[in-house]
Amino acid sequence: MILLALRQKGYEVIEAENGQVGIEKARKILPDLILCDVNMEKVDGYLTLSSLRSESSTAAIPFILMTGLADNAGMRHGMELGADDYLPKPFTIEALYAAVETRLKKAQTLRDEAEKKLADLRDNISMMLPHELRTPLNGILAYGEILSTDSASLQPAEIAEMGQIIHESGKRLERLIENFLIYSQIELIGKDPQRMGALRKKQTQFPRKIVEARASHQAQEAGRLTELSLDLTDKPAAISEEYLTKIVDELVHNAFKFSKAGAGIQVTLAPSDKMLTLTVADHGRGLGTEHVTRIGAYMQFERKLHEQQGLGLGLTIAKRLTEMHGGNLAIQSEKGVGTTIIVNLPLATSPAV
After folding, report:
1. Distance of alpha carbon 86 from its chain centroid, rounded?
2. Superfamily of domain covering 196-346
3. Interval 23-57: pLDDT, tens
4. Cα(210)–Cα(189) distance, integer angstroms
5. Which of 148, 212, 322, 334 is the most buried (most CB within 10 A)?
6. 125-191: CATH number
7. What's the rounded Cα separation, in Å, for the pair 83 and 60?
C-alpha cells in the first residue's frame, strides 16, 4: 500500500524485503529518501539505520523509521542513531505524503545551501588566490631585478630597504604556503580515525611558556610589544606543542593585523575543571554578526573597504585544530569595538607518555 501510494504520487519507489537487502540496495542506488520498518528479518530498522549512517556515501540520506511500537524509548533510540523522522503505525496516506515531502524539501534546501557555499568558495578562491600569491611575488621579483641590474648605482640604505621588502614579501608568501599545507594536513587527519586517536593523546605540559613566547613573538613582529598584555596560568593541556603554537600564532597575529597601533591586545590563559581557556582580545574594527557566522577558509570581508591580506585560513585552522582535540572556539565581535576569540581545550587527564 505504501509502495502504491507513493508511486501514485509520482515517486520512483524501490522495495527491499528485509534490512540486509535494503542496505545493499541503498549502497548501490543512493536514493533520495529511505522509509524503513523497525521490525524486519535479518537486520532490523535500527541496525539498518546505524549501518547506513556509518558510511560516508549513505550517511546524509534522509531516513524515516516506521513502527507500530512507537514508544518514547524507541523513538529516542532511533533519533540518537540519526533518524530524521518517525511514522507511528497506523498512519494515513496524507501523513505519509507529508512526511516524505517535508524530508525531501529539507534535503533539497541543504543541498542548495551546500551548492551556494561551494559557489562562494569558488568565487573567493578565484578572486583572492591570484592576488594573494602575486602581491608578495611581485615585490620579490621587482626588487630582486633592481638589485641584480642596478646595484652599482644604489646607495647602501636603498639596498637595505629593498632587501627588507624582499624579506617581508618572502615571509608573507611562506606563511601563505604553510597555511595551505597545514589546512590540507588537518583535513586529511580529520578523516582518519586512527590519526585522530593518536592526535588526541598528545600533550603540552607547560602551555604558558608556549603562549607567552608565541604571543610576544607576534607582538614583536608587529612592532607593538608594549601593547601586549598577558595573564597566564599553567596547567597541562591535551594538545601537542606544535598545534598549540599554531593556534596562538594565528589568533594573536590576526589580533594585531586587524587593530590599529596603540590599541592593546589582551591574551589570557586560565584552567577550569576540565578545560584550559585561551582568550585573545583586540580593540580593532570587529565583525558584524553576519560575518562571524560565515567565518571559513578563503573568506574575507569588506575587502573594498579595508586593505586585507590573507585568505581567512588562519582562523579556520585554529578552529579546526581546537575541535579536532575535543575543544571549541567561540567568536565574540562587534563592529567598531573589537573581537574576542575564546578557545577551550581539554586538560590533560593523565601524565604524558
Report:
1. 31
2. Histidine kinase-like ATPase, C-terminal domain (3.30.565.10)
3. 999 999 999 999 999 888 888 888 999 899 888 78
4. 23
5. 322
6. 1.10.287.130
7. 10
343, burial (CB in 10 Å: exposed 0-12, middle 13-18, buried 19+): buried
Bridge partners, 344 (sequence order): 277, 328
Distance (Å, rounded) from C-alpha 234 to C-alpha 19? 53
Q: Which CATH architecture has domain 2-91?
A: 3-Layer(aba) Sandwich (3.40)
Q: Where are the domains of the chain?
A: 2-91, 125-191, 196-346
Angle at 146 between CA 142 and CA 147, to 5 degrees: 115
The gap from C-alpha 302 to its chain's centroid, in whole angstroms, comes to 21
Q: Which residues pair with 270 in a beta bridge?
A: 277
| CB contact set of 32 (below 8 Å; sequence gap of 6+) | 61, 62, 104, 107
pLDDT digits (tens, 9 = 90+) for 271-316: 988 899 999 999 887 765 544 444 544 444 334 333 344 436 788 8
What 8-state DSSP symbol labels residue 61?
S
85 pairs with which residues across the strands? Answer: 64
pTM of this structure: 0.56
Residue 205 vs residues 235, 346, 349: alpha-carbon distances, Å? 7, 13, 11
CA atoms within 13 A on the CB side of 141: 7
Q: Which three cell numbers stand for residue 16?
A: 527491499
CA dist 33 and 53 (Å) reads: 13
Lookup: cell for 305: 573597504
Say if strands 338-346 and 275-281 run parallel, antiparallel, or are unpaired.
antiparallel
